[in-house]
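quick one before i forget lol
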Amino acid sequence: MRYLAGAVGILAIVFLCCLAYAWRSEIAPIEPPAVASFDAALVQKGAALAAVGNCNVCHTKQGGEVFAGGLELPTPFGTIYSTNITPDPDTGIGRWSEEAFARSMREGVDREGRHLYPAFPYDHFTKVTDDDNRALYAYLMTRKPVKAEAPANELPFPLNVRMVLAGWKLLFFKPGAYEPDETQTAEWNRGAYLAEGLGHCGACHTPRNLLGAEKQDERYAGGEAEGWLAYALNAASPAPVPWTVETLTAYLTTGYEEHHGVARGPMAPVTANMKSAAEGDARAIATYIASVMGEPSPERTSRGGRAMQQPTQHPPGVEVQAAGGQTLPGQFDANDPGAAIYATACASCHDAGRPVPYGGLPLRLSSATYGPTPMNPINVILYGLPAPEGERGPIMPGFAGALTDTQVAQLLAYIRKTFSDQPEWKDTEALVAKIRAGEHDTQLRSLGSGSSAPANPTKRETSW
């Protein structure tokens, strides 16, 4: 009994220590500050920062008011709903002080002292400076207040107990603002600060462990987001033409680049928002990401040069009208069913020579053709690219109603062997069936807008 009592006492002490570690105090509510109390220049700075952070995307449900929350976020652990971050005093953050807002960003704790789920990427936002948090606060507190209560999260026990998150933080969360690297340029440091902080690029482009934390030893090695493959942004990038600072800058600011293609899936709203970022920020991010990718090997440089110079080939018997009006001859195997599908459905756009984004990218230049899985091209083939709202831009019809799973797999096999030097994809038809059935929740977003035309428009996928 003496030993049992001792063990119980030790466990009680451990429990109390854990409770003390996990507990956070409430920060007193305030009266919502008047819009006129915020400096206009500070609000404008906050707007540019919020664009980099992509705040409107996660905190706006389809058809809802901007920043009013309620977006369903399916995770491997259950469903989380994004919160209302408008200045509504009852359902939003209208009664949050600047101190409370900064704590949520820096520590992942809300005004009431509750730990936040890392679907809100505070493991990145912790790097944001006090001055930038102040600007973000000013911007959000001057938005239109919207009364909208987010649905309750749907998580099993014990994950529905927020104090459990203190253990996750102990294992995987390192709080603290970004510390500049004095060996690098100011532009590189600005890019690193934005990419690692507000931009939270690693949230999609870094693989995660079983507990949903980013694998720090595999930073930017590629991940999965919202039913899409987020390609590696390090030396393992599958892009056949190596990225440069210039091409990355063009892609981030316009949503497309002539040798790499069009932003799609969850990347489309990122590039759309970057149009509102401060001047120079896109290039700074590009400078940093290009350094993460490193100097391409002579082999990759040579391959990229060949891809850009290779003449376009076409399926036999198909007359494709090029941009200049001349007819381009066919040269491919007529006995390949994938070639026949490509000739009928793809060649007239992807081989006609019209420049991106108004013509299809030659598929020998596409990262999707070289990617480790066919997830992204399956999404695009099935559901297309929706038209941008209010502006000219790329569009592609979806073929979900025209092609069977077998035919999509045949088309992908043809594209892979014809336009890349990579080994064939395995189990493609099964993956097509899963994506068509919605087992991979897919969010398709139009370039230049926050709208979407998804296979399952109510869902986005994240790590938590």
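fyi The two ends are 43 Å apart (CA to CA).
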